[in-house]
Design brief:
- With 211 residues, this protein is α/β, with parallel strands linked by helices.
- It folds into two domains: 118 residues, Rossmann fold (3-Layer(aba) Sandwich); 64 residues, Winged helix-like DNA-binding domain superfamily/Winged helix DNA-binding domain (Arc Repressor Mutant, subunit A).
- Helices cover 48% and strands 13% of the residues.
- Helix 2 runs parallel beside helix 3 and helix 8 crosses helix 9.
- The longest helix is centred in the C-terminal third of the chain and has 15 residues.
- The radius of gyration is 21 Å and the shape is elongated.
- The N and C termini lie far apart (68 Å).
- About 2% of the residues have low confidence.
């Protein structure tokens, strides 16, 4: 008796990534790709007529982003399982995916066997969050008096130096190979640690200490 196939919809706005993913998944006889969506709104429209077992859902998409789409899927189609896809192996994104009801989280550089294994385990009703965040560095650098004084991390100092150069959050994310969510979190942490209330005060601090 033939194995019943797991049906998938892939939602991602990067054409080259989708092409590679489709080639990879189509080689497995236990998986069938029903359709592709390039943004969150298109995905929700597809779900009016398609009812996959699993959605592979990119976090960063136009229309509804992945987390917005996840919320709608779990509200309107709670039986559909969702595996979040991301470039970033970051703890707060993994936790946000779990809190939103995702059934799994995969980093896009995972190898073929890992991805297929997670898809099949999720299809069997398991939750799969195989990626662990990198080991946390100390709260601040004991060897640097400035960082120690303000309990800043080296990463936060890097952000301050980019802020001085008038980088936007998006530019900082690209420069440091971080997600925009992580940059925003770092900025909030910096403001709290330095007890600053607004960007003007932050600029004054940067100039005062000649960062």
């Amino acid at each position: 008796m033939a194995e019943e196939k797991l049906t998938l919809i892939i939602a991602d706005d990067h054409t080259l990534f989708i092409d590679g993913l489709c080639l990879l998944l189509q080689s497995d006889p236990g998986i069938e790709i029903l359709n592709i969506a390039s943004n969150g709104r298109e995905l929700m429209s597809l779900l009016h007529t398609h009812h996959p077992d699993i959605i592979l859902l990119d976090i960063n998409m136009p229309g509804y982003n992945g987390f917005e789409a996840l919320s709608r899927i779990k509200s309107f189609y709670p039986k559909i399982k969702v595996i979040m896809l991301s470039t970033y192996n970051e703890e707060h994104l993994i936790e946000k995916a779990k809190a939103g009801g995702a059934n799994g989280y995969m980093v896009k550089n995972a190898d073929k066997s890992e991805l297929i294994n997670v898809i099949k385990l999720v299809g069997q009703g398991q939750s799969c969050f195989p990626y662990k965040p990198p080991a946390m560095s100390p709260a601040f650098d004991e060897q640097d008096p400035f960082l120690k004084q303000f309990q800043l991390t080296k990463r936060e100092l890097e952000l301050l130096q980019l802020i001085k150069q008038n980088y936007t959050n998006q530019q900082m994310a690209e420069s440091l190979h971080l997600s925009i969510y992580t940059v925003e979190t770092h900025r909030k942490n910096i403001m709290q640690k330095l007890n600053l209330k607004n960007p003007v005060e932050l600029t004054k601090f940067i100039l005062q200490y000649n960062l």
